[in-house]
Amino acid sequence: MVDYDKIKHTDKQSIVYVIQDIPGTKVGTPKINIIGATQFGNLRVLLPENSQIILSPNYVITTLRQKLKEYTIRDYLLLTGDPAIIGVACSIVSDITNGKYNLLKWDKQERKYYPVEINLYSKGWHIYYKPIYKKPRKLWQLILKKIECNLLS
To answer: Which partner for 99 in 4, 8, 38, 120 could form a disulfide, CB atoms 3.0-4.6 Å apart?
Structure first.
């Protein structure tokens, strides 16, 4: 079994909250590798892989509230597991941070995580992207500008 708590990141300020443990982790063969997310902070798993919101919604919500109570706007959500549980986790974090939070988006083509900044109460159609590398920044700016133009027209 992978012990994510033993994998440390140099920046002790940030935490990557893994919403639900990866299927197969219990038996030692996780279906996906999330080690790349450690470049954004220490990994902290919130719920086991077999958590079911339909069977015990109160338990899931209470556990998420308790484990996310220290979430700050410097931290990240890694959206894994049941989409309903992901929605609840995002709602709880949004409530804590007044609609501003970060998540990590997996890029299949580049095979790495990209940080995405969410601001639910910003004016207009803004998409936030925090590039890690400087070169793709111009390309992403052009892409995001094009998206914003299409959304506004």
So the answer is: 120
